[in-house]
Design goal:
This protein is mainly alpha-helical and about 425 residues long. The protein has a domain of about 160 residues. Helix content is about 70%, strand content about 0%. The chain has 22 helices and no strands. It is globular, with a radius of gyration of 21 Å. It starts with 15 loop residues before the first helix and ends with a helix. It binds fe (ii) ion. The site of fe (ii) ion has 6 residues, from helix 11 and helix 13.
Length: about 425
Protein backbone atom coordinates (compact mmCIF):
# COMPACT_ATOMS: atom_id res chain seq x y z
CA UNK A 1 0.00 0.00 0.00
CA UNK A 2 1.37 3.46 -0.86
CA UNK A 3 1.76 6.01 1.87
CA UNK A 4 -0.94 8.68 2.15
CA UNK A 5 -1.37 12.20 3.43
CA UNK A 6 -3.54 13.14 6.42
CA UNK A 7 -6.79 12.75 4.43
CA UNK A 8 -5.84 9.53 2.60
CA UNK A 9 -4.50 10.91 -0.70
CA UNK A 10 -1.68 8.87 -2.23
CA UNK A 11 1.90 10.05 -1.72
CA UNK A 12 3.85 8.39 -4.52
CA UNK A 13 7.48 7.62 -3.77
CA UNK A 14 7.32 8.20 0.00
CA UNK A 15 8.68 5.91 2.69
CA UNK A 16 6.63 5.77 5.92
CA UNK A 17 9.08 8.15 7.61
CA UNK A 18 9.14 10.58 4.68
CA UNK A 19 5.33 10.55 4.55
CA UNK A 20 5.19 11.36 8.27
CA UNK A 21 7.58 14.29 7.75
CA UNK A 22 5.45 15.50 4.83
CA UNK A 23 2.21 15.34 6.83
CA UNK A 24 3.83 17.45 9.51
CA UNK A 25 5.19 19.90 6.91
CA UNK A 26 1.71 20.29 5.39
CA UNK A 27 0.25 21.04 8.81
CA UNK A 28 2.87 23.75 9.33
CA UNK A 29 2.34 25.10 5.80
CA UNK A 30 -1.37 25.48 6.50
CA UNK A 31 -0.54 27.67 9.49
CA UNK A 32 2.45 29.34 7.79
CA UNK A 33 4.20 28.41 10.97
CA UNK A 34 7.50 26.96 12.10
CA UNK A 35 9.94 25.21 9.75
CA UNK A 36 8.25 23.00 7.16
CA UNK A 37 11.18 23.15 4.72
CA UNK A 38 13.69 21.11 6.78
CA UNK A 39 11.02 18.42 7.10
CA UNK A 40 10.58 18.39 3.32
CA UNK A 41 14.35 18.29 2.79
CA UNK A 42 14.58 15.31 5.12
CA UNK A 43 11.70 13.60 3.33
CA UNK A 44 13.39 14.18 -0.05
CA UNK A 45 16.75 12.91 1.23
CA UNK A 46 15.02 9.78 2.46
CA UNK A 47 12.75 9.34 -0.58
CA UNK A 48 14.08 11.19 -3.67
CA UNK A 49 11.11 10.02 -5.74
CA UNK A 50 8.58 11.58 -3.34
CA UNK A 51 6.65 13.81 -5.76
CA UNK A 52 4.59 15.86 -3.34
CA UNK A 53 7.58 16.68 -1.15
CA UNK A 54 9.27 18.31 -4.16
CA UNK A 55 6.01 20.03 -5.11
CA UNK A 56 5.34 21.53 -1.71
CA UNK A 57 8.94 22.72 -1.52
CA UNK A 58 8.53 24.39 -4.92
CA UNK A 59 5.19 25.96 -3.99
CA UNK A 60 6.76 27.46 -0.88
CA UNK A 61 9.88 28.84 -2.57
CA UNK A 62 8.69 30.06 -5.96
CA UNK A 63 6.43 32.94 -5.03
CA UNK A 64 7.22 36.07 -3.04
CA UNK A 65 10.80 35.18 -2.22
CA UNK A 66 14.16 36.44 -3.54
CA UNK A 67 15.68 35.40 -6.90
CA UNK A 68 18.09 33.00 -5.10
CA UNK A 69 15.29 31.30 -3.23
CA UNK A 70 13.05 31.14 -6.29
CA UNK A 71 15.90 29.35 -8.12
CA UNK A 72 15.78 26.67 -5.42
CA UNK A 73 12.05 26.40 -6.05
CA UNK A 74 12.66 25.99 -9.77
CA UNK A 75 15.18 23.22 -9.01
CA UNK A 76 12.51 21.46 -6.93
CA UNK A 77 10.14 21.63 -9.90
CA UNK A 78 12.80 20.08 -12.14
CA UNK A 79 13.37 17.30 -9.61
CA UNK A 80 9.65 16.45 -9.65
CA UNK A 81 9.05 16.74 -13.39
CA UNK A 82 9.78 13.17 -14.51
CA UNK A 83 8.87 11.22 -11.39
CA UNK A 84 6.24 8.52 -11.38
CA UNK A 85 3.03 10.16 -10.12
CA UNK A 86 -0.74 9.86 -9.84
CA UNK A 87 -3.00 12.13 -11.90
CA UNK A 88 -3.47 14.38 -8.88
CA UNK A 89 0.25 14.62 -8.29
CA UNK A 90 0.88 15.28 -11.99
CA UNK A 91 -1.55 18.19 -11.69
CA UNK A 92 0.51 19.61 -8.84
CA UNK A 93 3.72 19.23 -10.84
CA UNK A 94 2.17 20.89 -13.90
CA UNK A 95 0.95 23.79 -11.74
CA UNK A 96 4.41 24.23 -10.22
CA UNK A 97 5.94 24.28 -13.71
CA UNK A 98 3.58 27.15 -14.60
CA UNK A 99 4.32 28.94 -11.33
CA UNK A 100 8.05 28.74 -12.04
CA UNK A 101 7.37 30.34 -15.43
CA UNK A 102 5.37 33.16 -13.82
CA UNK A 103 2.15 31.86 -15.38
CA UNK A 104 -0.08 32.26 -12.35
CA UNK A 105 -3.37 32.11 -14.25
CA UNK A 106 -2.43 28.75 -15.75
CA UNK A 107 -1.14 27.43 -12.41
CA UNK A 108 -4.33 28.52 -10.65
CA UNK A 109 -6.47 26.83 -13.27
CA UNK A 110 -4.62 23.51 -13.01
CA UNK A 111 -4.88 23.57 -9.22
CA UNK A 112 -8.57 24.41 -9.59
CA UNK A 113 -9.04 21.16 -11.49
CA UNK A 114 -7.07 19.26 -8.85
CA UNK A 115 -9.34 20.72 -6.17
CA UNK A 116 -12.51 19.87 -8.09
CA UNK A 117 -11.38 16.23 -8.36
CA UNK A 118 -9.90 16.12 -4.83
CA UNK A 119 -11.63 18.70 -2.61
CA UNK A 120 -9.80 17.43 0.48
CA UNK A 121 -6.41 18.25 -1.07
CA UNK A 122 -5.49 21.12 1.25
CA UNK A 123 -2.23 21.88 -0.56
CA UNK A 124 -4.07 22.33 -3.87
CA UNK A 125 -6.48 24.73 -2.16
CA UNK A 126 -3.77 26.71 -0.42
CA UNK A 127 -1.34 26.96 -3.33
CA UNK A 128 -4.29 27.72 -5.60
CA UNK A 129 -5.51 30.48 -3.32
CA UNK A 130 -2.01 31.95 -3.43
CA UNK A 131 -2.36 32.14 -7.22
CA UNK A 132 -5.72 33.93 -6.82
CA UNK A 133 -3.98 36.34 -4.48
CA UNK A 134 -1.16 36.95 -6.97
CA UNK A 135 -3.82 37.67 -9.58
CA UNK A 136 -6.04 39.81 -7.34
CA UNK A 137 -8.92 37.47 -8.23
CA UNK A 138 -11.38 38.18 -5.40
CA UNK A 139 -14.05 35.86 -6.63
CA UNK A 140 -11.76 32.85 -6.95
CA UNK A 141 -10.16 33.61 -3.57
CA UNK A 142 -13.59 32.73 -2.21
CA UNK A 143 -15.08 30.26 -4.67
CA UNK A 144 -12.05 28.00 -4.96
CA UNK A 145 -12.55 27.34 -1.26
CA UNK A 146 -16.35 27.33 -0.92
CA UNK A 147 -16.77 24.66 -3.58
CA UNK A 148 -14.49 22.33 -1.58
CA UNK A 149 -16.25 23.02 1.74
CA UNK A 150 -18.90 20.25 1.51
CA UNK A 151 -16.10 17.64 1.58
CA UNK A 152 -14.68 19.03 4.84
CA UNK A 153 -15.98 18.72 8.39
CA UNK A 154 -14.77 19.42 11.88
CA UNK A 155 -13.41 15.85 11.79
CA UNK A 156 -11.10 16.56 8.82
CA UNK A 157 -7.45 16.95 9.84
CA UNK A 158 -6.35 20.59 9.68
CA UNK A 159 -9.97 21.77 9.42
CA UNK A 160 -8.78 25.16 10.65
CA UNK A 161 -6.85 25.52 7.39
CA UNK A 162 -9.90 25.61 5.15
CA UNK A 163 -11.63 27.96 7.59
CA UNK A 164 -8.68 30.35 7.36
CA UNK A 165 -8.72 30.23 3.55
CA UNK A 166 -12.50 30.64 3.55
CA UNK A 167 -12.20 33.66 5.85
CA UNK A 168 -9.81 35.44 3.50
CA UNK A 169 -11.93 34.66 0.43
CA UNK A 170 -15.07 35.95 2.14
CA UNK A 171 -13.22 39.07 3.26
CA UNK A 172 -11.93 39.89 -0.21
CA UNK A 173 -15.49 39.63 -1.53
CA UNK A 174 -16.83 41.97 1.15
CA UNK A 175 -18.66 39.32 3.19
CA UNK A 176 -17.12 40.66 6.36
CA UNK A 177 -19.35 39.15 9.07
CA UNK A 178 -18.99 35.61 7.76
CA UNK A 179 -15.29 36.16 7.13
CA UNK A 180 -14.69 37.25 10.69
CA UNK A 181 -16.67 34.31 12.09
CA UNK A 182 -14.76 31.77 9.96
CA UNK A 183 -11.40 33.32 10.85
CA UNK A 184 -12.16 33.37 14.55
CA UNK A 185 -13.36 29.75 14.41
CA UNK A 186 -10.09 28.77 12.74
CA UNK A 187 -8.06 30.53 15.41
CA UNK A 188 -10.07 28.84 18.17
CA UNK A 189 -8.99 25.50 16.65
CA UNK A 190 -5.40 26.51 15.85
CA UNK A 191 -4.13 29.80 17.32
CA UNK A 192 -0.95 29.61 15.24
CA UNK A 193 -2.82 29.78 11.90
CA UNK A 194 -1.30 33.01 10.62
CA UNK A 195 -3.52 33.06 7.50
CA UNK A 196 -6.70 32.97 9.59
CA UNK A 197 -5.28 35.59 11.94
CA UNK A 198 -4.58 37.69 8.88
CA UNK A 199 -8.07 37.24 7.42
CA UNK A 200 -9.65 38.65 10.56
CA UNK A 201 -7.14 41.52 10.52
CA UNK A 202 -8.31 42.29 6.97
CA UNK A 203 -11.94 42.44 8.11
CA UNK A 204 -11.03 44.84 10.90
CA UNK A 205 -8.97 46.94 8.47
CA UNK A 206 -11.75 47.17 5.89
CA UNK A 207 -14.30 48.03 8.57
CA UNK A 208 -12.01 50.67 10.06
CA UNK A 209 -12.12 48.90 13.46
CA UNK A 210 -8.60 50.00 14.39
CA UNK A 211 -8.81 49.55 18.16
CA UNK A 212 -10.38 46.10 17.69
CA UNK A 213 -7.52 45.32 15.32
CA UNK A 214 -4.87 46.17 17.87
CA UNK A 215 -6.65 44.06 20.49
CA UNK A 216 -6.97 41.16 18.03
CA UNK A 217 -3.29 41.21 17.11
CA UNK A 218 -1.75 42.07 20.47
CA UNK A 219 -4.05 40.56 23.09
CA UNK A 220 -6.73 38.22 21.79
CA UNK A 221 -4.33 36.00 19.87
CA UNK A 222 -0.65 36.92 19.82
CA UNK A 223 0.38 33.38 18.74
CA UNK A 224 1.20 34.65 15.20
CA UNK A 225 4.04 36.77 16.59
CA UNK A 226 6.30 33.76 17.21
CA UNK A 227 7.92 31.54 14.54
CA UNK A 228 5.56 32.58 11.77
CA UNK A 229 6.46 32.43 8.09
CA UNK A 230 3.94 35.22 7.55
CA UNK A 231 4.93 37.37 10.51
CA UNK A 232 6.14 40.44 8.66
CA UNK A 233 2.86 40.86 6.83
CA UNK A 234 0.81 40.47 9.98
CA UNK A 235 3.01 43.06 11.69
CA UNK A 236 2.30 45.29 8.70
CA UNK A 237 -1.42 44.94 9.43
CA UNK A 238 -0.87 45.82 13.06
CA UNK A 239 1.14 48.88 12.00
CA UNK A 240 -1.78 49.93 9.77
CA UNK A 241 -4.15 49.79 12.73
CA UNK A 242 -1.84 52.09 14.68
CA UNK A 243 -1.44 54.39 11.69
CA UNK A 244 -5.23 54.60 11.36
CA UNK A 245 -5.43 55.82 14.94
CA UNK A 246 -2.74 58.42 14.30
CA UNK A 247 -0.21 56.44 16.34
CA UNK A 248 2.66 57.12 13.98
CA UNK A 249 5.40 56.31 16.46
CA UNK A 250 3.95 52.86 17.12
CA UNK A 251 3.81 52.19 13.38
CA UNK A 252 7.39 53.40 12.97
CA UNK A 253 8.55 51.15 15.81
CA UNK A 254 6.98 48.17 14.04
CA UNK A 255 8.70 49.24 10.80
CA UNK A 256 12.08 49.45 12.53
CA UNK A 257 11.59 46.25 14.51
CA UNK A 258 9.61 43.27 13.25
CA UNK A 259 9.28 44.48 9.62
CA UNK A 260 12.83 45.47 8.70
CA UNK A 261 14.87 44.54 11.78
CA UNK A 262 16.18 41.24 10.45
CA UNK A 263 17.21 42.66 7.05
CA UNK A 264 15.10 40.21 5.01
CA UNK A 265 15.34 40.61 1.22
CA UNK A 266 12.29 38.45 0.49
CA UNK A 267 9.96 40.16 -1.98
CA UNK A 268 6.89 39.88 0.25
CA UNK A 269 8.82 41.43 3.18
CA UNK A 270 10.31 44.33 1.20
CA UNK A 271 6.89 45.00 -0.24
CA UNK A 272 5.36 45.35 3.22
CA UNK A 273 8.20 47.62 4.26
CA UNK A 274 7.73 49.88 1.23
CA UNK A 275 3.95 49.93 1.60
CA UNK A 276 4.22 51.01 5.23
CA UNK A 277 7.00 53.54 4.76
CA UNK A 278 5.13 55.18 1.87
CA UNK A 279 2.01 55.48 4.01
CA UNK A 280 4.10 56.99 6.80
CA UNK A 281 5.45 59.50 4.29
CA UNK A 282 1.92 60.37 3.18
CA UNK A 283 1.09 60.96 6.85
CA UNK A 284 4.00 63.41 7.02
CA UNK A 285 6.08 61.24 9.34
CA UNK A 286 9.85 61.77 9.51
CA UNK A 287 11.05 58.77 7.55
CA UNK A 288 14.70 59.98 7.68
CA UNK A 289 17.15 57.56 6.12
CA UNK A 290 14.73 54.63 6.08
CA UNK A 291 13.91 55.09 2.40
CA UNK A 292 17.63 55.09 1.58
CA UNK A 293 18.13 51.75 3.34
CA UNK A 294 15.03 50.31 1.71
CA UNK A 295 16.08 51.50 -1.75
CA UNK A 296 19.49 49.89 -1.12
CA UNK A 297 17.75 46.62 -0.28
CA UNK A 298 15.68 46.74 -3.48
CA UNK A 299 18.65 47.67 -5.64
CA UNK A 300 20.76 44.95 -4.00
CA UNK A 301 18.34 42.09 -4.43
CA UNK A 302 17.76 42.39 -8.19
CA UNK A 303 14.83 40.67 -9.83
CA UNK A 304 12.94 43.84 -10.72
CA UNK A 305 10.74 43.70 -13.80
CA UNK A 306 9.42 40.25 -12.83
CA UNK A 307 6.37 41.30 -10.83
CA UNK A 308 4.40 44.50 -11.42
CA UNK A 309 3.16 44.44 -7.83
CA UNK A 310 6.70 44.20 -6.44
CA UNK A 311 7.96 46.79 -8.89
CA UNK A 312 5.34 49.34 -7.86
CA UNK A 313 6.47 48.94 -4.26
CA UNK A 314 10.13 49.17 -5.29
CA UNK A 315 9.24 52.46 -6.95
CA UNK A 316 7.84 53.76 -3.65
CA UNK A 317 11.23 53.04 -2.09
CA UNK A 318 13.22 54.63 -4.95
CA UNK A 319 11.02 57.73 -5.10
CA UNK A 320 11.05 58.05 -1.31
CA UNK A 321 14.85 57.90 -1.38
CA UNK A 322 15.09 60.39 -4.24
CA UNK A 323 16.89 57.88 -6.50
CA UNK A 324 16.02 59.45 -9.83
CA UNK A 325 18.41 57.39 -11.91
CA UNK A 326 17.34 54.07 -10.36
CA UNK A 327 13.70 55.10 -10.81
CA UNK A 328 14.36 55.71 -14.52
CA UNK A 329 15.99 52.27 -14.77
CA UNK A 330 12.99 50.71 -13.09
CA UNK A 331 10.62 52.47 -15.50
CA UNK A 332 12.67 50.97 -18.35
CA UNK A 333 12.38 47.51 -16.75
CA UNK A 334 8.62 47.98 -16.45
CA UNK A 335 8.33 49.02 -20.08
CA UNK A 336 10.31 45.93 -21.11
CA UNK A 337 8.12 43.72 -18.89
CA UNK A 338 4.95 45.23 -20.36
CA UNK A 339 6.15 44.29 -23.82
CA UNK A 340 6.99 40.73 -22.72
CA UNK A 341 4.84 37.65 -22.31
CA UNK A 342 2.82 36.02 -19.56
CA UNK A 343 0.70 37.33 -16.73
CA UNK A 344 3.23 39.94 -15.68
CA UNK A 345 3.14 41.68 -19.06
CA UNK A 346 -0.59 42.33 -18.63
CA UNK A 347 -0.17 43.29 -14.97
CA UNK A 348 2.63 45.70 -15.80
CA UNK A 349 0.92 47.22 -18.80
CA UNK A 350 -2.47 47.66 -17.16
CA UNK A 351 -1.43 48.64 -13.64
CA UNK A 352 2.27 48.53 -12.79
CA UNK A 353 3.39 51.12 -15.33
CA UNK A 354 0.74 53.77 -14.65
CA UNK A 355 1.17 53.35 -10.88
CA UNK A 356 4.96 53.65 -11.17
CA UNK A 357 4.58 56.69 -13.43
CA UNK A 358 2.26 58.28 -10.88
CA UNK A 359 4.72 57.62 -8.06
CA UNK A 360 7.53 59.25 -10.04
CA UNK A 361 5.30 62.27 -10.74
CA UNK A 362 4.39 62.42 -7.05
CA UNK A 363 8.07 62.43 -6.14
CA UNK A 364 8.70 65.27 -8.59
CA UNK A 365 5.84 67.30 -7.07
CA UNK A 366 3.81 66.93 -10.28
CA UNK A 367 0.78 66.11 -8.19
CA UNK A 368 -1.87 66.76 -10.85
CA UNK A 369 -0.12 64.30 -13.17
CA UNK A 370 0.08 61.74 -10.36
CA UNK A 371 -3.62 62.15 -9.59
CA UNK A 372 -4.53 61.80 -13.24
CA UNK A 373 -2.64 58.51 -13.67
CA UNK A 374 -3.99 57.09 -10.41
CA UNK A 375 -7.58 57.96 -11.32
CA UNK A 376 -7.14 56.09 -14.56
CA UNK A 377 -5.71 52.98 -12.97
CA UNK A 378 -7.59 52.59 -9.69
CA UNK A 379 -10.63 50.70 -10.99
CA UNK A 380 -8.50 48.04 -12.61
CA UNK A 381 -5.75 47.93 -9.99
CA UNK A 382 -6.85 44.46 -8.78
CA UNK A 383 -5.31 43.09 -11.97
CA UNK A 384 -1.80 43.37 -10.58
CA UNK A 385 -2.62 41.29 -7.54
CA UNK A 386 -2.63 41.71 -3.78
CA UNK A 387 -5.47 42.48 -1.41
CA UNK A 388 -7.89 45.39 -1.15
CA UNK A 389 -5.94 46.60 1.90
CA UNK A 390 -2.65 46.57 0.00
CA UNK A 391 -4.07 48.33 -3.04
CA UNK A 392 -5.58 50.97 -0.76
CA UNK A 393 -2.19 52.71 -0.99
CA UNK A 394 -3.28 53.81 -4.48
CA UNK A 395 -6.32 55.61 -3.09
CA UNK A 396 -4.31 57.10 -0.25
CA UNK A 397 -1.70 58.41 -2.69
CA UNK A 398 -4.44 59.78 -4.93
CA UNK A 399 -6.02 61.68 -2.04
CA UNK A 400 -2.62 63.08 -1.08
CA UNK A 401 -1.94 64.08 -4.68
CA UNK A 402 -5.32 65.80 -4.98
CA UNK A 403 -4.63 67.71 -1.78
CA UNK A 404 -1.10 68.69 -2.77
CA UNK A 405 -2.18 69.83 -6.23
CA UNK A 406 -4.86 72.06 -4.73
CA UNK A 407 -7.71 70.07 -6.28
CA UNK A 408 -9.89 70.49 -3.21
CA UNK A 409 -13.13 69.36 -4.89
CA UNK A 410 -11.48 66.11 -5.98
CA UNK A 411 -10.03 65.60 -2.53
CA UNK A 412 -13.44 66.18 -0.94
CA UNK A 413 -15.08 63.72 -3.35
CA UNK A 414 -12.49 61.03 -2.65
CA UNK A 415 -12.80 61.43 1.10
CA UNK A 416 -16.60 61.22 0.90
CA UNK A 417 -16.27 58.02 -1.10
CA UNK A 418 -13.87 56.59 1.47
CA UNK A 419 -16.11 57.43 4.42
CA UNK A 420 -19.04 55.72 2.71
CA UNK A 421 -17.00 52.59 2.01
CA UNK A 422 -15.81 52.36 5.62
CA UNK A 423 -18.72 53.42 7.78
FE1 LIG B 1 -2.93 41.30 4.18
Amino acid sequence: MPETDAVGLTLTGASPQAAADYRQAVSLYHSLYGAPLPLLERAIADSPGFVMAHVLKADMLLVGTSPDVAAMGAAAVDAARDLTATDRERGHVAAAVQMAAGQFTAAGRILEDVSIAHPLDGVALQSGQLMDFMLGDSRMLRDRITRALPAWSTQTPDYHAILGMLAFGLEETGLYDRAEAAGREAIALEPRNAWAQHAVAHVLEMQDRRADGITWMRTENPAWQKDSLFGVHNWWHLALFHLGLGETEEAMAIYDGPITGDGSDMAFDLLDAAALLWRLKLEGAATQDRFVKLADAYEGKGGLGLSAFDDAHAMMALVGAGRDSAARDLMASLEAAAAGAGDNAMMTNDVGLPVARALVAFGQNRFADAADDLRTVRSRAHRFGGSHAQRDVIDLTLIAAARASGETSLERALIAERVAARP
